[in-house]
Amino acid sequence: MTQLLNGKEIAIKIKQEICEEIEKIKHQKKRLPHLGIILSGNNVESIIYVNKKIQECKNIGLSCSLVELPENSSEQKILEEIYKMNNNPFIDGFIIQLPLPQHINVDNLILSINPDKDVDGFHPENFGKMALNMNTFIPATAYGIITLLQKYKIKISGKHTVVIGRSRIVGLPISILMSIQNDFGNSTVTLTHTYTKNLFFYTKKADIIIVAVGSPGFLTGNMIKKGAILIDVGINKINQGIKTMLKGDIDFDSIFGKASYITPVPGGIGPMTIIMLIKNTIKAAYKRLYKSN
Ligand code: NAD
Question: Residue of the nearest CA to atom 15 in ligand 1?
Fold first, then answer.
């Protein structure tokens, strides 16, 4: 029997808690948390993600501002927008939507974000703090995975986790979080990537598998052991005639019945990611405004 880890449902519950928090802030007549977003270029998926983030801010009552820049914007132009957000006292936290056009050096941009406003948790100061188990902003997707596992009371400690994919936004942070000495960590983690030989060898032994590769149906039933817990981060667009479908990195049909848990796509890690970004924005606002007042 395979149980779905319903990220959509959990995200709605977290959203209700956040809405109560926002009501308290309103009641105290304090300024509402404000998320800034910088979007450069016309990557269709990025535009969809940004719209979802803005919509969720509106639903919850957060204010939000979007700076849209054309595909051919220079790095300097994006840096100028980052400095404006760093210095804008009404913006509590902001993100630069990734990926960016090829000619942009992402590292330069991330390094120029004020770490106190870095609600994606990508700045090395925040990433380092996360690795050292210090209080900081945790990258939203990794934060969403940990939270979902916690909400379902799935024990991570002592389990063997295999992470497939080592991107700085998903694979790397989740591999660190699962392994650190913490209530949600203490797992033995194997981080695999394109250079990993014989991936089967690792996945077959794993208690938990987190897949963030970007390849539809990449992980199949014959690659897992019975009872494995599967987290599917992948979001892949598949054209079926005139329809477009979303498919994860896990071949749902071949694992169903063999795995103990799986996150569906859509409705798994996606909604958790957005709500965790909002949680990080509120944390930034608290840090800057409310607690210090
Ligand atoms: P990425 O392209 O930056 O990284 C992919 C990783 O997969 C790389 O580290 C690479 O080494 C690894 N990889 C590729 N082929 C492999 C193979 N054959 N064996 C082992 N490892 C392999 O991707 P990303 O930004 O981490 O995104 C991955 C997927 O997750 C995409 O589908 C993306 O859309 C999705 N995503 C979803 C969310 C969400 O909110 N659910 C958030 C971020 C990314």
Answer: 194
Tell me how many domains the chain contains: 2
Please name the residues in contact with 145: beta carbons below 8 A apart, sequence gap of 6 or more: 174, 210, 231, 233, 269, 272
Catalytic residues: 53, 97, 120
What are the pLDDT digits (tens) for 144-189?
999 999 999 999 999 999 999 999 999 999 999 999 998 889 999 9
* Nearest Cα residue to atom 17 of ligand 1: 194
Rounded Cα gap, residues 215 and 209, in angstroms:
15
- Kindly state the average pLDDT of the residues 204-232: 98
Domain of 61, in residue numbers: 29-115
Which CATH number characterizes residue 87's domain? Answer: 3.40.50.10860
**Separation of CA 140 and ligand 1 centre (Å):** 15
146 and 267 inside one domain:
yes
State if residue 276 touches ligand 1 by the CB under 6 angstroms criterion.
Answer: no
Judgement on whether residues 144 and 109 belong to the same structural domain of the protein = no
Tens digit of pLDDT for each residue in 197-206?
999 999 999 9
Same domain, 58 and 108: yes
Rounded distance between C-alpha atoms, residue 174 and residue 33, angstroms: 27
CA gap 270, 177 in Å, rounded? 18
